[in-house]
UniProtKB/TrEMBL annotation:
Pfam families: 2OG-FeII_Oxy_2
Gene3D superfamilies documented for this protein: Alpha-ketoglutarate-dependent dioxygenase AlkB-like
InterPro entries: AlkB-like (IPR027450), AlkB-like_sf (IPR037151), ALKBH3 (IPR032854), Oxoglu/Fe-dep_dioxygenase_dom (IPR005123)
Phylogenetic classification of the source organism: Bacteria, Pseudomonadati, Bacteroidota, Flavobacteriia, Flavobacteriales
Domain Fe2OG dioxygenase, residue spans: 104-201
Domain of life, per lineage: Bacteria
Identification of the protein by name: Fe2OG dioxygenase domain-containing protein
Length: 206
């Protein structure tokens, strides 16, 4: 049997309404997780993330990387990034995620959280460059972390634990109706690598 052929097929939608968040659970075994964690940590071109907040450029401890089919430009937090071309490991993971989810993706935003003290504030991925109602597949390697959703209108919260080697997919109207975040914690002292496969809309010039 191939090293990367024994992942799970089943998933559960964890949202009660107004969106779809399918959680597949752990889709890679320990050996696979260790392999990809080491490869990504070593071969990805990690850079400190930046954002414009109240007119000032802020640099975060969290590191990011942006890869895709072509050198896409992608703007979030008022900063524009240009995609690097896929690495061998990222292409392999993209293929696996596409087979699991039945979706296709042309880019991936990666995050490296060094400890639990690094997280992500409430937000939704509603940038104009993203495919409307397109799927965003979130793959996790390394430290186990809590991930949270909050309804934009009624404030209902849903928490889930993202395990090492787990896959979660946000799609449909999720981004319109729900915020999500990675809350910081002082009890996690090891890194987590998160890959978010997504689809950038290519604008045709007139």
């Amino acid at each position: 049997m191939d090293l990367f052929s024994d992942y799970s097929q089943e998933f559960t939608n964890i949202l009660p309404y107004d969106g779809e968040v399918d959680y597949y659970g752990i889709v890679f075994n320990k050996e696979q997780c260790d392999y990809y964690y080491d490869q990504l940590l070593t071969h990805v071109d990690w850079q400190c993330d930046q954002a414009i907040i109240f007119g000032k450029k802020v640099t975060t401890k969290r590191k990011v990387a942006w890869y895709g089919d072509i050198p896409f430009s992608y703007t979030y937090s008022n900063i524009t990034k240009t995609a690097l071309l896929w690495t061998e490991e990222l292409l392999a993971l993209k293929k696996i995620v596409e087979e699991r989810t039945g979706e296709t993706y042309n880019s991936c935003l990666l995050n490296l959280y060094h400890t639990g003290e690094e997280g992500m504030a409430w937000h939704s991925d509603g940038e104009k460059d993203l495919k409307k109602h397109g799927a965003i597949a979130s793959l996790s390697f390394g430290a186990v972390r809590k991930f949270a959703f909050k309804h934009k209108e009624n404030g209902v919260k849903i928490d889930i634990i993202l395990d090492n080697g787990s896959l979660l997919v946000m799609k449909g109207t999720t981004q319109e109706n729900w915020l999500h975040r990675l809350p910081p914690t002082k009890v996690v002292h090891t890194p987590r690598i998160n890959l978010t496969f997504r689809t950038i809309e290519i604008k045709e010039s007139v």
